[in-house]
Amino acid sequence: MRAELAKVAIDLFARQGFDETTVEDIARAAGMTKRSFFRYFPTKEDVVFDGIDLTGESVVADIAARPAGEGPWECLHQVLQAWQEEIHASEQALATIRLIEATPALAGRLHQRRTEWRRRVSDALQERPGTDLD
To answer: What domains does the chain contain, in order, with CATH numbers?
Structure first.
């Protein structure tokens, strides 16, 4: 249900604009109450970043799953290349990126999230067996 709700929200944001779309609009389009919406997402901004956060978690997991003998740069290159292909194959992911780029408040929040993801990716690379990044 969470993924469906996110899709409904992204579609509405793309048609109406982020600032012009209310949580009530999203809930109505998803066939639920406003209160039900908040069971899934604390804010309408969180619905935008849900897929992006899942991608960030998956990137970290994919780094950990790469072959142990692979160097850190090759590991990072392979993981990011695979995710770039997946993102470009997803219309919802591309719509989310366009929405973030067109909405200053969301772009600022993305910058904050990127800082956290960079730290987590760096930690994941350092935790790989045989990796010495110092």
So the answer is: 2-127 (1.10.357.10)
